[in-house]
Every structure is written in C-alpha cells, then in structure tokens.
TrEMBL record:
Protein name: Putative non-specific serine/threonine protein kinase
Origin species: Rosa chinensis
Predominant subcellular localization, coarse grouping: membrane
Domain Leucine-rich repeat-containing N-terminal plant-type stretches: 26-63
EC number: 2.7.11.1
Amino acid sequence: MERTWFFLVCCFSIAVAAHTNSNLTTDQSALLALKSRVTSDPNMILTNWSTNTPTCTWIGVTCGANHFRVAVLNLSYMGLTGTIPPDLGNLSFLVELRFANNSFHGHLPEELARLHQLKLIGLAYNSFSGLIPSWFGSLSKLQTFNLTGNQFSGSIPSAIFNLSALEVINLSHNQLSGTSNKPTNKLSGTFIMYTLIFYVIMV
C-alpha cells in the first residue's frame, strides 16, 4: 500500500513539474520573440535572455513564487529600441508590464488583450503610435495605465472608462484629438487623466 501511495505521489509530482515546465517554455518563447524584435540593445541588457539560463533569472523578468510563471516584465530605462510581438499575449500570468523610457515603436498588438491578469501597464515615453486600442477596456483588473509621451492619436476609447479597478491613467503628451466621455461612477480611488485639451483630477 505504501509503495502504491509513493508511486502515485511521484507520478503526480512529475506531471505537475512537466506542466509547469511546459507553461514556462511558453513564457520563454514569448520573451525570446520580444528579444528578436529588439533592434538596439546598447547596454546588452538582454544578453542573458537565453535558453541556457533559467527564464526566471533573466534581467527584467520576475516570476510568481507559487506558479513560477512570468508575473512582471520590467524593461524600463534600458535604452531598448524595437517593436512588440503578438507572442507577448501568451504571458498569461503577467501582472505588470513596464517598458517606460525606451524607444519602442509601432502599434500595440491586439493579442495583448489576452493578458487578463494585468494590473499595471507602463509604456510611457516611447514612440508607440496609432489609435489607443479599445481592447484595453477588457482588462478588468487594470489599476494603473500610463501611455504618456508616445504618439497615439484619435480619441480615448470609452470602454476604458468602464474599468472598475482603474485608479490612475495618464495619457498626456500624445496626439489625441476630439472629446471623450467623462469618467463614470464605476471608477474608484484616485483617477488622473490628461489629454491634449483637458486635465481632470477626481478623488
């Protein structure tokens, strides 16, 4: 009986380890896709982003203590130039995405809408362009949303104002135009919004 129990425990442990490794491989592939889109890395920040080193030890990467999946991706202030690949939408446990003060450019891929665990998006002071995607409104856990200092144009999607967890949003220093709906009573906490034509602080 004891041998049977020990055998079952070993099988379960192996299955869990294999599943975790498979998911982490998915995260690794997503990050390597991002690395392949980086055209300039003057400080060689991403040198250790390699299959020869554990993903959770890569610079800018923090994994969750329980699930060992990528939870935080922080590449802020690293002097990087490049674009965002759709593969980044496979980081299904990602809670924080921080790319501030780099030279990333282009449009944000719609696959990022799959990142339903996101609480913070910090893409300030890059060169992202195009419309602010309406799918940001599907990120129900989002608390902080900072796109200041980019080249986004058009109006602010009304879906963003339906995010009940949202506390801070900064859209200043873009090329926004037109009008936008005022914040609804679904928004809680401190709400800060900047556009080209107005500045609102609500407490």
